[in-house]
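Hello,

Following up on my earlier ticket. Below are the two sequence lines again, exactly as submitted.
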Amino acid sequence: KQEVTQIPAALSVPEGENLVLNCSFTDSAIYNLQWFRQDPGKGLTSLLLIQSSQREQTSGRLNASLDKSSGRSTLYIAASQPGDSATYLCAVAGSQGNLIFGKGTKLSVKP
Amino acid sequence: KAGVTQTPRYLIKTRGQQVTLSCSPISGHRSVSWYQQTPGQGLQFLFEYFSETQRNKGNFPGRFSGRQFSNSRSEMNVSTLELGDSALYLCASSLASGTSTYNEQFFGPGTRLTVL
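Thanks for your patience. The regenerated structure is below:
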């Protein structure tokens, strides 16, 4: 059974710092991995999608990497801003296509 | 392009009642999935519909059901509500081909259900 873990559960950083969020999964037979952002009480915003054949994806200040063999993904946020404060969720798509989510990392960026 | 929409945004029900939630996917998207989010369990997959057929189902009791219409809009129904059904219910849509649902999923704002 696929399990997704995100570490740390919470992170507080000063504005301008570069940071890395971690995601690990137990079954390397995934089809893709998606990173989401969730603001309090809101839905999920898709940040990056990495297909299983890819190693990384970039969008603006965000860069996500995928290492299927070791069951790991990282989300790198450059030059963090207070507006980046949110919960970041990692999800993997298995053979049936449904997403299996981690519990998220709650990020707080202090001005 | 309009995003995924969900109605209603908030609902308050009492135990034993039933509820119907609605989801309209992004235009052109044929797959609709439903997820339940609670503080304790996080996000859990309920079911997925494609071309009006349930293609995949999570581990939830039969009180949770859904359907999809020919225009890809989807509804989910929860009967005999329990206190533990209080949650944020999220709908996601994706392009999805006939045999694959591995496309990027886009989520709606969710319906906050409170059961008293």
